Amino acid sequence: MSTKPHILVVFGSTRQGRRGEVVVDWLRDKLATRTDATFEFVDLREIPLSFFDSPASPARGSIAPEAAQWAEQVDRADGFIFVTPEYNHSYSAVLKNAIDHLYMQWVHKPGAIVSYGGMSAGYRAAEQLRLVLVELKMVPIREQMGISLVPGVVPHIADQPDSPGGAFLERAYSGMMTELLWWANALIPARQRDREQQS
Ligand SMILES: Cc1cc2nc3c(=O)[nH]c(=O)nc-3n(C[C@H](O)[C@H](O)[C@H](O)COP(=O)(O)O)c2cc1C
């Protein structure tokens, strides 16, 4: 059985004409070269969830039937990379809704953030998402990637690896992955111990 962490990459834009696909594609190419974890990508367009309106909290284990597949995907992940746009200084509503549909499936797992947006590279969205991850008993990874989609702004997705912007992105990516996988590896046995004690 593989002991490598399984990381779920959650793409948080479902907008018509969304521009975040360049960010996801960039990340997909980077992750494809790694052998230290397995990676699965989920596009929230393919997880059609209505606005969360369950009478009971998912923190008590109640999952809406429509969220069953989403719950299973999140449950088997050992960590996450949230790819989120910045909308009005926050992350997307569709990502928040997908998060709120679950609870136990997030607990004691690390979450890294790749934000993107205008001049601020989505950093304000990332800061707000961090607060929510803490409430889910997750470990928000300090090292993060912020990518501007405005041409000429550093760092930009199209920057060459040997340019200042490209080198910055590479360092940010490398630092984020090191920390994410450190925590993912550390928490796998910890969650296993919990399961054994509960059974
Ligand atoms: C409703 C809305 C609000 C936005 N608010 C911000 C913002 O607060 N800060 C920012 O840098 N960019 C903002 N933008 C620009 C987006 O980050 C940019 O359009 C990005 O491409 C959105 O991701 P998407 O195209 O994948 O949905 C906003 C865009 C939209 C549509």
From TrEMBL:
Signal peptide coordinates: none
An example Gene Ontology CC term for this record: cytosol
Domain NADPH-dependent FMN reductase-like: start-end pairs: 6-147
Pfam families: FMN_red
GO molecular function term, any single one: FMN binding
InterPro entries, per the entry: Flavoprotein-like_sf, FMN_Rdtase-like_dom, NAD(P)H-dep_reductase
PANTHER family: CHROMATE REDUCTASE, NAD(P)H-DEPENDENT FMN REDUCTASE LOT6
Name used for this protein in its record: FMN reductase
